[in-house]
Protein: DUF2794 domain-containing protein
Amino acid sequence: MNAQTPSALHPPPKPPEQVAFHRTELSVIMNLYGRMVAAGEWRDYGMSSLREVAVFSVFRRAAENPLYRIEKRPKLRTKQGLYALIAMDGQVLKRGHDLKTVLRVLERKLIRAVE
Structure:
């Protein structure tokens, strides 16, 4: 009789090859994006799905650096929060576990005084 170790019977699960935004997360992001485009603030976006992070970048013009980056980092889920909003200069504006709460910082830019 062969005695096998438990690790040989059940190999550890593979980590995902890349991190991506889920459809519900993209719905929240695209809802905000559409309102900001209608307000004339944003004009273009880009998405990246990498091994440890998924990034949604927002641009004022296509040929410049992103104004904001919305990042999803599953490794930070239990520590600082799964989502982060990062400004053009690299400053973290908000981190959290709830995407809507993190994006609320940008919602304030839509509220303006009417003259």
